[in-house]
Amino acid sequence: MTHHDIHVIGGGLAGSEAAWQLASAGFKVRLSEMRGGGDMTPAHQTDGLAELVCSNSFRSDDAERNAVGLLHAEMRALGSLVMTAADAHQLPAGSALAVDRDRFSEQVTRTLAEHPNITIVRERVDTLPTDTPAIVATGPLTAPALAEAIGGATGADALAFFDAIAPIVHAESIDMSIAWKQSRWDKAGPAGDGKDYINCPLDREQYAAFHAALIAGEKSEFREWENVPYFDGCMPIEVMAERGFDTLRFGPMKGVGLDDPRTGRWPHACVQLRQDNAQGTLWNIVGFQTKLKYAEQVRIFRTIPGLENAEFARLGGLHRNTFIRSPVLLDHELRLKSRPNLRFAGQITGCEGYVESSAIGLIAGRFAAAELAGRSLPTPPVETALGALLSHITGGAEADSYQPMNVNFGLFPPIEGRTKKADRKLMYTARARAAFTEWTAALEPVAA
Q1: Is 11 annotated as a binding residue?
Q2: pTM of the model
Q3: Most exposed of 181, 189, 218, 364 (fewest Cβ within 10 Å)?
């Protein structure tokens, strides 16, 4: 296929989802991905489309009480390729949706490659199309030449922050005479049995020593990335440790709801590992994104009870994320105001997280498909998870202080009156479902 109706640049989660939505609507898509064509990013390990770089978790799948779970449900209803692949390769993770990252990526890649309306081209794109329709979904690791071109087109400097990767441990190297399997409060998800996490307990003395080691450990040098802020939702463990002695044990190392079988009590602190592949041979350390040097990671993490002989399939790392000032640069359909042939999607818009990135790719693809068909797609209501996230990106956020954001109920229009927190969440999701149903009922089918 030489002709295409639209060019999607970037084969990550957002680009893959956008291409799928467009192709499903009958439009010819050129999907460009530089990995596999001789280029690689500092964080990716394969050339698979929609590779999961950091965690393997899509976070909570609870559509009744959680904003990201609600977004899952809305994406499923809109025929999301990403959610279909995630559901097909789900792993036990309590109420969260975790996936086998390799099989997930393989399914997305295969599905797109087999679609007759999609041509996947392994190429690095260094310039932006000047007049033909395109969706830029190159993500937070956009190649320098294209990043420079984006800077020229937007007329504004890109913002940046650090994003850190958690290490992965071989299951056979974990001492299960110390560690045990349990989900917090024994809560089981659709793919689990209430024993979805491996837990490594620390008493107060062990925690104090671990905390001190994190702070004293040798870190990676910043060099040209110095003075770039972290995103709070993906903060390195040692940076959290520096915020206070008890910060970790009230964060990723909290022991509440976990009963140590050796004592029958909750530990002072606890490190959790989550299954990372279908075979259960690899487990990632939850919340342990880090910028510690590799040797320091091995030394310090092996002081955790149960991980004294841990073998690491992957150590943690650090990479730079870039995103544009979307609230002032993009219109409500994700078009660049100065060059409306270009749409932006995914993390480069300033949304944060696998699900959010995919969701913005989905709606960008649908906006583009409607425009190609000569129609207008109504913007999803702000009462929905998709609409709330889109509204935040395209104008709801304060532009001067714009930072990456996960979907959360704080982005939704407030519920009037005083209610209990648990009841308020149910009210948010009930209102969202009603608004989403009304919106989808009014959508016209889009076809080339």
Answers
A1: yes
A2: 0.82
A3: 218
